[in-house]
Amino acid sequence: MRVHTGVKQFTCDQCGKSFSQSSHLKDHINIHTGEKPYKCSHCDKRFSRSGNLKTHERIHTGEKPHTCDQCGKSFTIKGQLSAHMRVHTGEKPYTCDQCGTSFTQAGHLKNHMKIHTREKLNTCDQCGNMFLNASALKQHMNVHTKEKPHSCHLCGKSFLCLQSLKEHQKLHTAVREYMCFECEKTFTSAKCLKLHLRIHTGEKPYKCSHCDKRFNQSATLKKHERLHTGEKPYPCTACGKCFNNSSALHRHTKNIHSK
């Protein structure tokens, strides 16, 4: 039985990298020689390392052995699980040295840096907004065209972007993978969890421009400011009376017109 001492006694004479096992060195040398002895039994792809083949074959088998102990979501590789766990912990280890904005994944930081370097930015010819890639610009253009190409097959509701549709469909499937560690309440999206956490932290980032009141949600602020502006955007279709929020309109319709 081999004792794991941590000593890396097998060294690659091509690059000097060391390994604790001869089999690991053997796989590593394939990188230099270009040899790919490990072939997928489901398709024609080949790999230089047995571990890479094993990970690839999970695409075919659907195996996801790495499971989050917070929400039960599973992943094919350990790295995906590690990145996912930051959703629950709130950890953002990748920080921009230009503006201090932090990210959960290195790839997100890399995309963000293009804002500072102006590298390959895609500009909207309607409003001038800039995007990091062409797909983001294409999705943004739906705002101007009013197109909602992503429809829910269960209720028919349509959305501007695919991610909004995915979040919506969780309402039908009852998937609630984001949990509050304070009260264990669960949510369908990170955004909903973030809004909820303000109940516990007391954070109220939205301040009324007419008085000193503050709110934890932008929608609540908007509703409040109508008290100052007198705006009443919700008209009753039966009698024409207007209300400053949808709840007041609903109560009016129920109490006056449904009798």
Automatic annotation (TrEMBL):
Domain C2H2-type: 10-37, 38-65, 66-93, 94-121, 122-149, 150-177, 178-205, 206-233, 234-259
InterPro entries in the record: GLI_C2H2-zinc-finger, Znf_C2H2_type
Listed Pfam families: zf-C2H2, zf-H2C2_2
Any single GO BP term: regulation of cell differentiation
Top-level taxon of origin: Eukaryota
Keyword Repeat tagged: yes
UniProt subcellular location: Nucleus
Alphabetized GO MF terms: DNA-binding transcription factor activity, RNA polymerase II-specific; RNA polymerase II cis-regulatory region sequence-specific DNA binding; zinc ion binding
Keywords, alphabetical: DNA-binding, Metal-binding, Nucleus, Repeat, Transcription, Transcription regulation, Zinc, Zinc-finger
Single GO cellular component term: nucleus
Assigned protein family: Belongs to the krueppel C2H2-type zinc-finger protein family.
Protein name in UniProt: Zinc finger protein 723-like
